[in-house]
Design brief:
With 554 residues, the chain is of the alpha/beta class. 24% of the residues lie in helices and 24% in strands. The protein has three domains: 250 residues, HUPs (Rossmann fold, 3-Layer(aba) Sandwich), CATH 3.40.50.620; 148 residues, Ribosomal Protein L25, Chain P, CATH 2.40.240.10; 116 residues, Ribosomal Protein L25, Chain P, CATH 2.40.240. Strand 8, helix 8 and strand 9 form a beta-alpha-beta unit. Helix 2 packs across helix 11, helix 7 crosses helix 8 and helix 11 crosses helix 12. The structure holds one RNA strand of 74 nucleotides. One of its GO terms (biological process) is glutaminyl-tRNA aminoacylation. Its EC number is 6.1.1.18. Keywords: Aminoacyl-tRNA synthetase, ATP-binding, Cytoplasm, Ligase, Nucleotide-binding, Protein biosynthesis.
Length: 554
RNA sequence: UGACCCAUUGUGUAACGGUAGCACGGCAGAUUUUGGUUCUGUUAGUCAAGGUUCGAAACCUUGUGGGUCAACCA
């Protein structure tokens, strides 16, 4: 049976359009970032939506940089954005466009509107225009310059373009409706004078179109059939359609969906920049950042992000996604792909008293029990090993399956041991060493001992272990919604969001690990090799812990 | 005090006038040489009040609650 997957409301619109032969059944979407910051997890949803929906209906997706404001936009961001989209697994082929590619065409459109007496040059100041607009509760007033002749408007606009007037001296506005309840219809500004070097057009222009006069027309020029954007643009749609009608251009359709909010995260480029600038994080790609580059460095697989975006769904209601869902997608992916390794973060020595002095042996262990094709590796074992300090308790509670005086445990892929003696520091009372017995016939894979051990511990062989460090992370913010009204989001920054543990002990199989490799540290979680690693000294970022089960508190 | 959008278990999302389902989470159990994974069971929901209808989560009205809109930003 076919599993009947229900459609989201955008797919319903598209299928309806296809069924009615609109645009001959063609589907063409676009992802339109402004190159003024790095992409974050919220953008990932828009990227996945646009690319996946085009793929589903046999269409294409363009990448288009919405670069109409040269004051904030830079080539550095263009490159970072392209890298992030590719990393996510999407390809726009040769369709890399820029709104600035259309500046000449846009200028012609403006001339057309002037000729149709639908646009006028306004000498009012920004403050005066704001005043003319009125408020949502009161209608606006006509600009005193609204009645200029077509000839005068044409002359003034050409001279604006030719650089005859200082920045901000005049703007081009369209004549829509100053009494409209929708503020965006109150004779919006469509061109402003701004002497700014543009990252692509250089100093060719001193006038630049506004968003409303660039975005929709760019969609139209590219033949975009379904222009998907977030809900806050819903009030722009009447204007979007007004321009299509008045200009008589290809009728792209704007459809709005709700952006995704993820708790404990912020997705405001301005505020993300503030975290970078104030040194709260080390950069846009700090592993604690909700940016695409941040989660990549953190070790989140691209596939996990894609599945997350799919699970989150598409609708129009405000939503708060639990960060646990993202983490569950990451665990699910890494469980399938990450190689298992044993690492001791906080070691305590275990001496196997009845193991021959000076002897070592190699014990095979599976690289990933979820994927047999990853094979096995050999782990050295010997008389002195290291286990996790938290895996030993002098006075354990009930249901404690780990090591304690007299207790018996299995060493993963090795032998069963029983604790017989505890060595303490005479002055501090701290446990410094645990002495155990091992059962030679309990060897993993050929266990004939008949002994049952409740718990299994990870370990490393002391003298063959290699060293490294790990960065453990907590949420970057202490509040589910850091932007909650009232206090400033900076006061919600978690001061303990990163903890570095130096001198961790790793099994020797890590020797050839490289930047970006992901591993499961058995019984700890998933970790990825950071680019700060140096030969002989691996640095890991904690990607996500294993799902928490039992914990020894109480 | 205007216009527009929205309202389904804790969270997200279906049901298109005809049995309120799925995923994640929670809880309980089974399996387990990772207290992971996997498997099984279970929990819990239509914002409110009217109306239309044989029948309403859905359609209508009015409330209520949340969100968005007044940059020469996008």
């Amino acid at each position: 049976m076919e599993d009947q997957k229900s459609l989201n409301f955008i797919e319903e619109i598209i299928e309806h359009d296809i069924a009615h032969g609109k645009h001959a059944g063609r589907v063409h979407t676009r992802f339109p970032p402004e190159p003024n910051g790095y992409l974050h997890i919220g953008h990932a949803k828009a990227i996945c939506l646009n690319f996946e929906i085009a793929k589903k209906y046999g269409g294409k997706t363009n990448l288009r940089f919405d670069d109409t404001n040269p004051a904030t936009e830079e080539t550095e961001y263009v490159n970072a954005i392209k890298r992030d989209i590719h990393w996510l697994g999407y390809d726009w082929e040769d369709r890399e466009y820029y709104a600035s590619d259309y500046f000449d065409q846009l200028y012609e459109y403006a001339l057309d509107l002037i000729r149709k007496d639908l646009a006028f040059v306004d000498d009012s100041t920004a403050e005066e225009i704001a005043e003319q607009k009125g408020t949502p509760n009161e209608p606006g007033k006509l600009s005193p310059f609204r009645s200029r002749s077509v000839e005068e408007n044409m002359d003034l606009f050409v001279r604006m373009k030719d650089g005859e007037f200082p920045d901000g001296a005049r703007v081009l506005r369209v004549k829509v409706d100053m009494t409209a309840p929708n503020m965006h219809m109150r004779d919006p500004v469509i061109y402003r004078i701004k002497r700014q070097h543009h990252h692509r057009t250089g100093d060719k222009w001193c006038i630049y179109p506004m968003y409303d006069f660039a975005h929709g027309q760019s969609d139209s020029i590219e033949g975009i059939t379904h222009s998907l954007c977030s809900l806050e643009f819903i009030h722009h749609r009447p204007l979007y359609e007004w321009f299509i009608e008045k200009l008589g251009i290809f009728p792209s359709r704007q459809i709005e969906f709700a952006r995704m909010n993820v708790n404990f995260m912020i997705t405001s480029k301005r505020r993300l920049l503030q975290l970078v600038n104030e040194g709260i994080v080390t950069g846009w790609d700090d592993p604690r950042m909700p940016t695409i580059s941040g989660v990549r460095r953190r070790g989140y697989p691209a596939a996990a992000i894609r599945i997350f975006c799919e699970k989150v769904g598409i609708a129009k209601r405000d939503n708060w996604i639990e960060i646990e869902l993202l983490e569950s997608c990451v665990r699910n992916e890494l469980n399938q792909t990450a190689l298992r390794r044993m690492v001791v973060l906080d070691p305590i020595r275990v001496v196997i008293t009845n193991y021959p002095e000076g002897q070592t042996e190699l014990l095979p262990s599976e690289n990933n029990p979820e994927n047999e094709s990853t094979g096995e590796r050999d782990i050295p074992f010997g008389k002195v090993i290291l286990i996790e300090r938290e895996d030993f308790m002098l006075d354990p509670p009930k249901k404690y399956f780990r090591l304690a005086p007299g207790a018996t445990v299995r060493l993963k892929s090795a032998y069963i041991i029983t604790c017989q003696e505890v060595i303490k520091d005479e002055t501090t009372g701290e446990v410094t060493e645990v002495h155990c017995n091992y059962y030679p016939d309990s060897k993993s894979g050929s266990d004939t001992s008949g002994i049952k051990a409740k718990g299994t511990l990870h370990w490393v062989h002391e003298s063959s272990a290699i060293s490294g460090e790990v960065r453990m992370f907590e949420r970057l913010f202490t509040a589910e919604n850091p932007m909650d009204e009232g206090s400033d989001f900076m006061s919600k920054v978690n001061p303990q969001s990163q903890k570095v543990i130096k001198n961790i002990r790793l099994e020797p199989a890590f020797a050839d690990a490289v930047d970006g490799d992901s591993f499961q540290f058995i019984r700890h979680g998933y970790f990825t090799v950071d680019r700060d690693s140096k030969p002989g000294h691996l640095v890991f970022n904690q990607t996500v812990s294993l799902k928490e089960g039992w914990s020894p508190k109480e």
